[in-house]
Design brief:
By secondary structure, the protein is α/β, with parallel strands linked by helices. The chain has 5 helices and 9 strands; from the N terminus they run E-E-E-H-E-E-H-H-H-E-H-E-E-E. The chain has a 6-stranded mixed β-sheet with strand order 5-6-7-3-8-9, with helices on both faces. A 3-stranded antiparallel β-sheet has the order 2-1-4, covered by helices on one side. Helix 2 packs across helix 3 and helix 3 packs across helix 4. The longest helix has 16 residues.
């Protein structure tokens, strides 16, 4: 890892004994962890390990069964939601609208009516703000970058990204990794849930390995599963 964080040691997120049950199934089984600002965290693990549930909990989209999350110094996640950008696995974009139209719509949800901010967000992910083609005609790589622009439009401090490399070619995945490192280096704290952890092997500051609803380990290098 070549990146050296300039963030203070004070955690930006503190998770304590986080439990999330869906009926009898416990997706999270008592997760406790601290994360500092200005780092790129890759959240990895097998299907059902609790990765997306953890991300959605951080985004305030699902309420824990037990435990707490403190973010930016408060446990009231709604009060800091404007400082969080969330990129879901589905793009959440409107296919019949162009990129700028999509961003204008999502920006209004944050009471932003400044086209310049939308233009900057689109340009920041390497797309052309003047492109009028409907998003439904974008390549998958372009759609993923536009989804990232949607998460960036309000300039959040924390980015929560669910499978940003999903269904994209190698070139697009590299572009996405480069974008994420640039955003991290600009001071944003980034959490990436991915099944393609190798894409972040030389970019992530830390790999958070989940297993059966618990953090199994945290490593600075990617630990590959051994073949049976």
């Amino acid at each position: 890892m070549n990146h050296t964080s300039h963030a203070a040691a004070t955690p930006i997120i503190v998770i304590h004994d986080l439990v999330k049950q869906f009926g009898r199934f416990a997706a999270l089984r008592g997760v406790s962890a601290e994360f500092v600002a200005g780092r790129l965290y890759a959240i990895v693990g097998e299907n059902g390990a609790g990765k997306t549930t953890l991300l959605r909990s951080l985004a305030g989209l699902t309420q824990p069964t037990r435990g707490s999350i403190s973010m930016l110094g408060t446990t009231d996640l709604r009060s800091v939601c404007s400082q969080v950008g969330y990129m879901a696995h589905p793009s959440l974009l409107y296919d019949e609208m162009g990129g700028m139209e999509n961003l204008r719509y999502f920006a209004r949800l944050y009471a932003i009516q400044d086209d310049e901010l939308c233009t900057r967000a689109i340009a920041a992910v390497g797309l052309d703000p003047t492109l009028t083609r409907p998003v439904g005609q974008y390549s998958q790589g372009m759609r993923q970058r536009m989804s990232l622009a949607r998460a960036l439009v309000h300039d959040p401090k924390i980015l929560l990204l669910d499978e940003p490399f999903s269904n994209v070619d190698t070139r697009s995945a590299r572009q996405m990794t480069h974008l994420l490192t640039q955003l991290r280096d600009a001071g944003k704290t980034i959490f990436v849930v991915t099944h393609q952890a190798s894409q972040l092997e030389h970019a992530a500051d830390e790999f958070v390995h989940l297993g059966a609803g618990l953090i199994a380990r945290r490593t600075r290098e990617l630990i590959r599963m051994e073949a049976p």
